[in-house]
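Forum: Protein Structure Q&A
Topic: Joint prediction for protein chains with partners

I've read a bunch of threads here and the consensus seems to be that you should model interacting components together rather than docking separate models afterwards. I'd like to see that in practice. Below is the full input, 1105 residues plus whatever partners are listed. Could one of the regulars post the assembled result?
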Amino acid sequence: MSGSLLLQSVILGVLLGGLYALLAAGLTLYFGIMRVVMIAHSAFLILAAYLAWWFNRETGLDPMLSLVVTVPVFFLAGFLMQRLLVSRLKPLTLTMMSVLLTFAIALIIEGALGFIFTGTQRRIQLPYAGDSLNVFGAQVPVVKLVAFVLAAFALLSLYLLLKYTRFGRALRATIQHPEAARLVGIDTDRTAGYGFGLGLATAAIGGTALSLDATIYPSLHWHWIGPLMAIIVVGGLGSIPGAAIAAMLLGISQSLLQLPLGATWAQTVFYVALFATLMFRPQGFFGGRLAQRF
Amino acid sequence: MRNVSERTASAALGPAVTETVVVVPDTPRRSRWPRLVSLALVVIGAALVLSFPFVAPNPYILSAGVVILNYAVLSTGWNFMGGFTGYISLGHAAYFGLGAYGTGLIVKYLQLPGFVAWVLAALLVVAVSIPVGIAALRVRGASFVIVSIAFVLILLLVFQSWREFTGGSEGLIVPRPFPDLMRPEHHRVFFYLFAALLAAALVAWWIIDRSKFGTALKSIREDEDKARSLGVPTTRFKLIAYVLSALVTALGGGLYALWFGDLDPIFQFSILVGSYMVLMALLGGVRHLFGPLLGALVVGIALEYFKLEFGDTQFHLVAAGLLLGVVVLFMPDGVIPAVRALIDRFRPQQTSIRDVTAAELLEQNRAAATSEPRAGASSDHRAGAAPDPHADADNREVVR
Amino acid sequence: MDALHSTRRRVTAAFALAASAGLVLSACSGGPGDGASADDDPIVIGVSLPLTGDFSEPGKGVERGYEAWAQIVNEQGGLLGRQVELKILDDQSNADRVVSDYESLIAQDGVDLVFGPFSTRLVVPSARVAQEYGMLFVEPAGAAAEVFEQGFENLFYAAPAVANDHYNYLADYLLSLPEGERPKTAAVASMDDPFAQGTAYGLRDKLEEGGVEILVDEVYPPNTTDFSVIAAKIAESKADVVIGGSQYQDGVNLIIALQQLDYQPKVAAFSTAPTNPEFASAIGNQTEGILSPTGWSETASYPSNVEFVEQYTEIFGNPPAEDEANAYTTGQVVAAAVEAVGCAEQGECQQQLIDWLHENTVETVVGPLSWDEAGRPSGAHLIQQWVDGEIKIVLPDDAKEADFLIPKPAW
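Posted by a regular:
Agreed with the consensus. Here's the joint model:
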């Protein structure tokens, strides 16, 4: 195995890890806010990818332009989902029942996509699909780079939003201590709704990024939810930086392990990491004080 | 009656006393479901099941009956964990698949007779489920669900990739245990085998439900921290329930392999199958012996119907999703309690509740506190605080 | 206990009574074999196809082929003077679905004939159902060796050659090249699917025997969408020949990933994908020189083929592809047997149809077909290549429409 192949794999891993990081950030956000394991996250991801594909097919414009519509729509959908559905669940059984509820939503999305667009595999045909840049002897596909930049930009915006805005502080307070947040005058219910909206907005961006260089079909979301859930456990449930770091590490590991093990076995790295985390450090490796209790 | 015996049983336990949620009856107790009626219902139900192969108009309907019985076995198996402890596993398809593939692989490599392989495979699955259970049960709710889903996905990967051993995506062909039977006869034999397995699973569930062990498990479901503080060895009990649940599910899977003959990793390790188990149990009612069976009947028939009517669309997914959403939002305790509540309205005053959820109890307590205080019962009650979305503990009163 | 028993017996009896009433009702509503196959009733043909899931792309092609066949037959007066009617169910590319589909078609709907599904993975379980109900089972897609090793007597593969022989002409040609031009190394990537692997490994093994070194040999599961690392390995090996055991979308994805890494092989052979009408636009029209085996050619001069291409194009607005042709061939084979034997219903008729096909040769759009006792056809596949933006037959020499292009131009 030569150095250039190794470099190639690391680059592919980083490009993949960026997308994982964005999506896992959304997933861990819901958990932080509401202790909700949002199974439908990746279904919304695929939905966004389909919308980007459909947009591109109908208009012939660049699929990334569809973000102008999908991001606000997904944000609203997330807000409504939290306020109208998740908040109806009884608090005592919230974690378990929210899993089932979001699972049901995932099934509905998958079924509806299959119903409308059929189960045929789809792929956006971009003029620059086969182009690549040569970086130190490694070929970096342009579409993957675009997807990565999109994801990284979204993740950075999310970070800045949470860190430096009034809303971000309210949201973090809600995550850290909801009772105290209420005492200082934060409308935690509304904030939680906005948090859900943010989570789904990341799915919209992630899905569009995904659609640039991947084949999509309705049941694809099952192949995403497993790795994403493993990432948020390894990173520590509820911790966004933890999720981002774990996503990057696992993305690179997956890419590197594909060389000796092949595509399928390499995917098991997520699950091995998941089981190892639960066995040895259930609170996660990068922060996340929530895991043990929930 | 049950009430009293349960309490004496737990009193006799000594230090490891388990706590059950019991409301002291404030009027003399009367059985809500007369024994005779229950028995008659069970007998009629059994007779319906046993006579089905003779009245099924064609082998396809019979095979659909086998599928539904299989679902009932799986869902009842799931309910050993989900119903007793309240831990919802979305990944029980893993044990279905392991049972099926285990049986098939043992027949293939060890040349053992099908039913011997079936039992061996189930024992192997028990061995597998112990470490998985330990890992999954180290953490509460959310992580448990994540592990359960991850376990199915990892097995799907392994069974797809390990071609030399499992046959990979091409699947595995399990030889028929009765090669001489014509297809309709084959369906009929397996219909009775599945019925027997279901009966065994139901009896086991019923015994646990009435045992002190079952009471302890239910205390975990209602309040794990409190159960632990009262001396219930929660981790060990949860693990036992998990392993039992895996065992029943694996037996269902193994029997399926012998019946169906063609195993495909995508179907054997499908999250969808696991979610059907949950949907069936939840729809029927996880606290009830026949809940999963009822759910399997409804969901199983609905699935066949959707397949026949909307064969070439994905509509069945939407329907399943909507049904699951409705159940979760509007009747998380299932159909049986809903129906019972309806019947009870037309019955003389209800007297005792053997099994109530913490949430229900909270509401009753609140109602009792606000309405006129009745002697005895409500003196211990306190008006519950408004539920806190993040509290996992103290919304509940245990009244003795 | 006694009381319980007698109760049960009484209940059973009562229930059986009620149930047999239901039985009469359901029989009226049309179970199988209710003997009402009057001469003017349509012949109902049951099919289960993967219209969703992993194989939906080729599955839909097969569906179009069957529909075209039914329409063309009906326009010409039907079979035995009866119209034909297709009943198509979706098996979602699932083996458990395909079995219950055929079970419901045969036992519940009482179809008169069945056609096979798509993909080897689904052919084996469904052929067993058909076998156990004694039905003739002609199928358009189960070409892998193991299909014919299950001891089916009712199965016939309606195409010229089994999967492992698809590339025979190409292997012979490459190995016959002079020393300097002969490829020395090859890289293989195949879907984990018996058909795709059968085709790719047929070529791989023949090349290896001929002294070509196999540098990369990868297998990916049917649901793979990210081919970047497989492509990286192939590109790294700089193999002269790349062999893709592909269905459709996986082939497209692999080629794009290879293009992204700027890998330029001398020979690129992919199963099935390049014959798909959308293939060229899907890979950005960089098709020049890509090879594919085909059992069928649009331009072949068999009389029924000319008619098929013409009428299909009229119905669907574009010419058929190989999946459509294979499905159409299936229809032709069954139709030939039905017309010869003079019956089309469940029961003894099916065995007569099976026996007739074992003994006779059928003229089809892919030429004359005959089968051995296991249902293997005894022909060979043509090799096609994209030349000047069109896919043309280049091998064997006596059928060629263009000259073989080697080395392949850059993509």
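Residues 300 and 306 of chain C are 7 Å apart (CA to CA).
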